[in-house]
Amino acid sequence: MLQAGAKTLSVSRGISLGIRQHCNKTPGRLTGSRGISLVSIRRVWDKTPGQLTVSGAVSGEQLGAKVKVQGWVRSVRAQKANLFLHVNDGSSLQSLQVVASSELNDPLLTFGSAVEDFPFKIKERHSLEYIRQFPHLRCRTNAFSSLLRIRSEATTAFHSYFKENGFVQIHTPVITSNDCEGAGELFQVEPSGPDNEEEENFFSVPAFLSVSGQLHLEVMSGAFSRVYSFGPTFRAENSQSRRHLAEFYMVEAEVSFTQSLEDLTKVMEDMFRSATEHVLAHCAEDVDLFHKHVTPGHRVTVEAMLKKRFPTITYSEAIDILNRSSENFAFPTDWGCDLQTEHEKYLVKHCGNVPVFVTDYPYDLKPFYARDNQDHSEHTAAAVDLLVPGVGELCGGSLREERLDLLRARLEEAGLEDTYSWYLDLRRFGSVPHGGFGLGFERYLQCILGVDNIKDVIPFPRFSHSCLL
């Protein structure tokens, strides 16, 4: 029998298992009788082996080479003749199984290093709500470790899409003097300590944690035709609902030389499809865990989103659909009212339970930078939202007002002309038609996984009255 060298599985408290692997045709199962001989327990190797992840081991990589696998013992089961160990290093949902002689059983080889009162039981399936109580430990569960691998791969997917489509990444500032959304829900940044005078601003002007990188991206869109950012944003919204976080991540993009909203919706739809197909291809096992055990049946919804084109309706058509429905909505559906989550979810179901674009919102509902459609009968702005199943609004964007006279009039009306004089300069010194959008990254993960609470798709959720760790 061909021998494939030696491996080491490093488990809690510094213990290492020396293993010899023979030609094993069953990935993920390393056995003493069919492929693995557990030959010793020792702390130091005579020779330095190559490193191999559990993911690589279960897929059969580097057979015939001397390698070292390091991870944590997830479970130990001793029988009369054999000892069963499951080892995981976080690289894969599947653990590496070692079957060895029971003579090598060691009291130190236990799940969690024999820690008493550990809140997660290896043979139990815990709900996301339950593990949310332990933000410092939930990464050790199968569900949340899968979520974190999916989140990591989704991050890669968005970056890949933008790189492949000619976008330049911009690192927009976290600290800013701008309120992009105009909602006033800002965290003000002030230095702490006895040496700082209360009446003096550290930056000479009031500074805040950013709610959006859009305005900074617009600066860059005067030199680059396609730019994007991916980073944290902050909202001081006093809410503990399942939809809101005080800190979350946004994917934002600006596109120059736009002709219509279709130039934006095409990018939004292509980006959504590209990222989702990437995640499904590279995290199939982790996504299946959610679609089978956390949100059964959601895979059908995801597949439908990828098969069908996203329909487009105007805001006026959306209001008409809502008013013709038999639903008893909690919020009004008059023309001019902002769409609430209940309205957004109904519109998605009405359109076949696939993502739907809603365009041309009332002008007064949108920020100063949204382009005026100058349709005097209704007066709308060239704005668009992408609504998705289970979530509601996922993306929001607009064409930007590039006409200096109209933009100045809007800022004067809001009393913001001095504050945004630099923004007027972007038009005064030469501008082109352009537009952009932002996508809530956590909401995207909720959408493709079917997770109901946004706090379950971010490593360390921050929200009103909660900032653990």
From TrEMBL:
InterPro entries in the cross-refs: Aa-tRNA-synt_II, aa-tRNA-synth_II, aa-tRNA-synth_II/BPL/LPL, Asn-tRNA-ligase, Asp/Asn-tRNA-synth_IIb, NA-bd_OB-fold
Signal peptide, first to last residue: none
GO cellular component: mitochondrion
EC number(s) given by UniProt: 6.1.1.22
PROSITE patterns: AA_TRNA_LIGASE_II
Domain spans labelled Aminoacyl-transfer RNA synthetases class-II family profile: 148-459
GO biological process terms, semicolon-separated: asparaginyl-tRNA aminoacylation
Family affiliation: Belongs to the class-II aminoacyl-tRNA synthetase family.
Listed NCBIfam families: asnS, PRK03932.1
Protein name: asparagine--tRNA ligase
